[in-house]
Amino acid sequence: MKKVREKPKSLCVMECLRGRMAFSKEEERSYWQGVRGYEGECCFDSFTKDFVTINDLTIKEGQTAQLDTLLVTEYTLYLFDVKNFDGQIMVRDGILYHNQERLVNNPLERLERAKVLLEKKLLLHHIRIPVVANLVFINPDMIIYGHHPDLPILLHPQIKPYLEKISRGSLVKVEKLAQMVADFHTEDNPYTALQMMKYEYDNLKKGIFCPSCRVSMNAVSGRTVQCRKCAYKNSKTQAFLRMMDEYHILFPDKKVSVQNMYEWCGGMISKRTIHTLFERKK
Ligand SMILES: [Zn+2]
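Above: the input record for the complex with zinc ion. Below: its predicted structure, written as tokens.
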């Protein structure tokens, strides 16, 4: 099975928690970083859609590395780490500064580490193929200073011409190779565990929340709810199903019942409606 890109679990959880609890500055920062990161990766996917790719591959060989995008050809594996930075990037002696602040986890070093780990893994499985790694700055408005052409960095305007030069080889061989590499994946990822937020059911605000503003929505009629901020409307049925999905994301092990869904939606959907919707889902 090849790995398809999914929205990171930590980001899904944070999305469901927004509006239901106060975020610290650090959590707010990490949320927006997650949103931008995911947008950047999806944007890069639109460039590579005609290739065989493996997304979000986590490999472990002593150390662990997460590989955003791995593009597979018969002759070479192309590893891409996508960064969606705005503003300015400055490169000085291999160190990156974003808006004049030194990036703590140097993306160039991380990329190199991931490449070495992948090479090690390939060697162990007797797969002989070179790996080429690049850091991709996907944001077209980002400005870079001190960039040397020898650095493994691709800027937005370089992506398309770079990919156009890649020769893919035989699709059968590529698919076979991709399958072998995709099998390296481990679910055992220390990074995702670290990013998970702590929360408890009792401390979360109940109600129906607007998908974009995360403000609680009001009932405007027997069948409709509306966001107080952006005026976005939902039928109560849609809103209920959205809230139930959020409940599943936040509490995957808890059972749903008419009573707790009634509570979860802040009493805005009648128990009778919830009951009917449950019956319909059966
Ligand atoms: Zn809204």
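Notes for the reader.
The pocket of zinc ion is lined by residues 210, 212-213, 215, 227, 229-230, 232 (CB under 6 Å).
The first helix runs from residue 9 to 17.
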